[in-house]
Every structure is written in C-alpha cells, then in structure tokens.
DNA sequence: AATCGACAAACTGCATGCAGGAAAATTCGC
DNA sequence: GCGAATTTTCCTGCATGCAGTTTGTCGATT
C-alpha cells in the first residue's frame, strides 16, 4: 500500500488516475477506504475533525461516489461517527470507547489466532515468520508508523490463515486500537517499550508453528497488556479533558 | 419493520414513497438493506440467485444509488457474494460456510449476552421479558417466519443492552443462521421441536434477570445445539449435491 | 450439424446534477 | 456596539447518465 500520492492530485481527470487503478485491480472505493483509514489512524485527520465527501474526494482526486461508499463503510465500522444530519466526524479518542473496542477484540481475537494456527497453509506459515522477523527488525525503530502499517498486513495475514471471512470485523477494531496507541505513543515508550511488538512477534511465531493453545494464551495476555495500557494512559486522558 | 409493501411499488415517484420514509427517519439505503436482507433470509431471493442493482431498485421502487449502498453492505456482511466482475449473487447454503458462521458467532455471542446481562437498563430488561413472552407464545406456531422476524428484534435488543456497538457485526451472522434454519425447517421440526425457541426464551430471561454467568452458559449450550443441528442436516446437504 | 466468432444486451463503477436542510456568516434592529 | 434574524453557503441523500466490460445469443463457416 504505497499510499498513492502524498501531494494533492486534484485532477479528477480520468487520464491522471487510471494508471493507478487498473494495475491494482482495486476499486476507487476500496482505495478511498484504505486511504481515509490511514489518514485517521495517523491522525492526519484529527479526532473530531469534520469529514465531508467533497473534501475527501478532492483530497484523493476521485469523485464523490466512491468516497461516499468508503465513508459509509468507515462509519459502519465505527471509525467515523455520523451525527443524524450534521455530517460525519472522525471518532474521538476516549477511554470508554477504547475499552469497548478491546471488549470486542477480546471476543474475536482468541478465535482468530487459534484458527489461524490450526488452518494456516505452509506458505502462510512462511509469510507469518517473515512478518515476525520484520517486527523484530522494527522493534526499536524511532518512527512507529511503519510498524503500524506492517501491523495491518499482519492482521490481514492472520485472517487469511484463519480461513473465516466472518471474523473480518476485527479489522476496524485494530485500526482504532492502532490510533489509540499512536496517540499515546510517547507514554507508551515509558509504559513498556517494545512490549506490543514482542507480542506480535510471539503470536506470529506461535501461529506459524501451529501452536494453537499457545497462540490463544498469547492473544489473551496481549489483550490484558493492551487494556492495562489503555487504562494507564486513559487516566490522564480523562484528567486533561 | 412492517416490510413496506409486498406488492410491487414500481413508482420511483417521490410522492409514492415519501409517506414511508420521513416518519421512520430512515434512509432509503437502510430500507433497502433490511428489505433485501429479508428477501434473502426468507429465500424469496433464492440461494445463488443473481442480484442486480437495477433489479432490486425496480423491485422496491427506489433509485440505484441507495440500492447499491445496501448491496455493498450486504456483500461486506457475507450475505451476498460478489464474484470479481460478474455481479453479485445470494450466498449459497452449505455446511462448511455455516460452520464458519457459527465459529464467528461463538466468538461474539458469549460476550454479547454476558455484557447485555451486565449492562441492561430496567427498561431494556422489561422489553427482554416481553420478547421472551412473545417467543413463548410463538413456540408452536406453524409458520416460522414471524418468529424469525421477532428474532431479529431480539438481537437488536441484546445489542442495545450490551451497550457496545462494536459487537454489531454479529447481526449478519444471525441473518445467515436464520436462513439456514429456515431452509431446513422441515427437518428441524423432527430434530428437536421448539428447542431453538426455548433457548431464546431462557437467554432472554437470564439477560433480563442480570444473570451474567447463566446467560453465557446458555449461549454456549445454544451454539452447541445449533452446531449439532447444522451438522445433522448438513450431512444430506452434502449427499444431495 | 457443430464450433467459432461477432454482435447485442446488460451490468457495474463512477461522475455529476439537483433538492432539501443544517450551519455559518452577514446584516439589520435596538 | 451587541444581539437576533435573515441570507448565504455548504453538505448530504438520491437519481441519472455514461463508459468499459462481461455475458449470452445468433449467425457464419467448416
């Protein structure tokens, strides 16, 4: 996901954007979804910011229709919130919401990693090991964003391995979790440096090895850790508001 | 959900349909979603049937845009499947898919009922008890469809009570489960008459009473039952194909 | 008569225009 | 000069038109 063009490709001219889409075989709506998701997670679109179809459409250089579809999906995923007639906004960051996200993740994540461990193909196992290795390399990198993007691919890989498309609703939960983590990155470093990445590495390896029970235990422990972190930073989140 | 008009309201004329929408305060896309979901669950749209934007738009008397949005949501939910460039079809019914659906339900459902039991308001408790009573009344009714529609409201109520919108991805799983059940209704009667309804009643009452652990146990037992049923009818599902 | 190729119908993806309604800016009254 | 009403602007929801592609059909050729 090379994120298209950081500069403003304002041209809705078909010539200008067709070179991007046919090769990928991806619809403009899918592109818009991933693009806006990324903007939200990286907080280029700040929490609470207004999001309009027209604005996004101009920003990424496509028409309103695919943008509209992407925005509605994002709203359905809870990444954007839509007040009845007042347009859409980026979901605010707060502890209560994050705890709900983690509650839903806890419901899904154990099943996800267990089934992935059970059903992954040899090729998927290899890619999981690669992913774990990549995490290891990023473990102490200064910029967190590459690890974030890598994390997204990790989840996609787990979903492929689990061979159950009905678990895919966990994807937006990860997006919200990544944003929460990024928003408190400075604190995170002091809270427990590298712990999250370590969990990713160990889960990836356990799944690759087919260790179902171990992967499940790790996922549980991971969520315990993430929840503790949320409560930790959430305290002065509430205090500062 | 009075399902609008069973006859064909072919008129895209605003006058003809505005009486339906403004009172509900619901968008045409939402209406189309529920309408098509119902068509699929009741198998008025048969498994494997082709679904086109234009066809549905004519059928329910709105333009293509809201229909398109609804169809894309339904595809995202796995109720419709979209072959790359060949349009959308209603998902086929098969045992393997149903087991995946139940796997995902198992992940979510325990959390759903436990949290609903924990967080339901007194008003929600009252409505849950009403729902259970209604199920009791329908227990031995000949026509299964009313119970099916009631079931949908039951889930909505559980979701409200659980106070966690991120668990809402269970809704389409129920839709697929209801269709599976309906498709095998004749066999169901012999398999274990009324058992499903009994579970609904008991779960509703446990949640209303705030019995978190009991509700969770019931949900687990319910899924065991439903899965056994799926495997039972799935055997000759495979044999007949 | 069967197969292959060309034509035609249909459908999706996308852009755009229009109407209704809310929010914001401006102007008018005090 | 400040508050309130009005106008302006923006935004969403929906319909519709257009282009590219695919599917199904009919006719021509072997």
From TrEMBL, chains A, B:
GO terms for molecular function: DNA binding; DNA-binding transcription factor activity. CDD domains: WHTH_GntR. Residues 1-26 are annotated as: Disordered. Residues 1-19 have a biased composition (Low complexity). Residues 26-93 form the HTH gntR-type domain. Keywords: DNA-binding, Transcription, Transcription regulation. This is Transcriptional regulator, GntR family. It comes from Albimonas donghaensis.
């Amino acid at each position: 996901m090379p994120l298209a063009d950081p500069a403003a490709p304002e041209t809705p001219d078909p010539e200008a954007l067709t070179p991007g889409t046919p090769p990928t075989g991806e619809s403009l709506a899918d592109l818009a979804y991933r693009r806006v998701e990324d903007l939200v997670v990286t907080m280029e679109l700040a929490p609470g910011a207004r999001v309009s179809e027209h604005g996004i459409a101009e920003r990424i250089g496509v028409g309103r229709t695919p943008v509209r579809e992407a925005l509605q999906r994002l709203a359905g995923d809870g990444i954007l919130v839509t007040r009845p007639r007042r347009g859409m906004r980026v979901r605010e960051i707060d502890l209560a919401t994050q705890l709900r996200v983690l509650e839903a993740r806890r419901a899904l994540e154990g099943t996800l990693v267990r089934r992935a461990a059970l059903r992954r193909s040899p090729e998927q196992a290899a890619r999981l090991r690669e992913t774990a290795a990549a995490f290891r390399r990023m473990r102490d990198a200064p910029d967190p964003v590459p690890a974030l993007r890598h994390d997204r691919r990790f989840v996609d890989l787990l979903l492929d391995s689990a061979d159950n498309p009905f678990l895919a609703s966990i994807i937006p939960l990860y997006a919200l979790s990544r944003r929460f983590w990024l928003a408190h990155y400075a604190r995170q470093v002091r809270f427990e440096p590298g712990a999250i990445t370590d969990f990713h590495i160990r889960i990836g390896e356990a799944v690759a090895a087919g260790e179902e029970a171990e992967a499940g235990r790790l996922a549980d422990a991971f969520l315990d850790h993430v929840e503790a972190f949320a409560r930790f930073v959430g305290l002065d989140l509430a205090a500062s508001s």
